[in-house]
Amino acid sequence: MNIKNYLKAFQFLTILFLMTISANQLFSFTDKKLLLPGDEEYAAFAEEMPSPVGGMSAIIKQINYPLSAKKANIEGKVFVLAYINEKGGVDNVKVLKGIGGGCDEAAIEAVSKSKFNPGKNGGAAIKVKLSLTITFKIE
């Protein structure tokens, strides 16, 4: 093996090492700088995840399909992240992926007004982030 091959191998290993260090820093979930304010208070998972009181149908019943979305034939799924507290209340709702036409806001409003059975770990109620999908379909 000649010196050029050794240098190429050394460069490759150096780049791989630097990428590994960068990836570890990027995906470090203990680094609070990467979390949004308040996110660290809410678990991403729980032994018993929160569930809407009355099921998803209770949330769907609270949705007022926006007139502008109906007129524009906007249908689809709005993906939201709900921050559920240890009492089952909704502290915040964020749209992860929306469809516009007022549907995103209608989904936020419906989820915000809903009550949940709280998430639990070891039998104790905890704060949990819960992703939900709200489907808008014109009938």
Number of distinct helices: 4
Under CATH at level 1, the class of the largest domain stands as Alpha Beta
CATH level-4 homologous superfamily of the largest domain = TonB
Biggest β-sheet strands, sense, barrel: 3 strands, antiparallel
Which topology of the largest domain does CATH recognise? TolA/TonB C-terminal domain
Q: What is the H/E string?
A: HEHHEEHEEEE
Strand order in space, largest sheet? 3-2-7
| Structure summary, number of beta strands | 7
Q: What count of domains describes the coordinates?
A: 2
Structural class: alpha+beta
Mean pLDDT reading: 82
- The Cα radius of gyration reads 22 Å
Low-confidence segments: 16-35
State the separation between the terminal residues, measured CA to CA: 71 Å
Which SSEs are present, and which pair or pack?
Blueprint: H1 3-26, E1 51-52, H2 56-61, H3 67-71, E2 76-84, E3 90-97, H4 103-112, E4 116-117, E5 119-121, E6 124-126, E7 128-136
Antiparallel strand pairs: 1-4, 2-3, 2-7, 5-6
Can you give keywords for this protein?
139 residues; alpha+beta; TolA/TonB C-terminal domain; three-stranded antiparallel beta sheet; 4 helices
Q: What would you note in describing this structure?
A:
This protein is of the alpha+beta class and 139 residues long. It folds into two domains: 1-33; 35-136, TolA/TonB C-terminal domain, CATH 3.30.2420.10. Helix content is 32%, strand content 26%. The strands form three sheets. A three-stranded antiparallel β-sheet has the order 3-2-7, with helices on one face. The N and C termini lie far apart (71 Å). The relative contact order is 0.20.
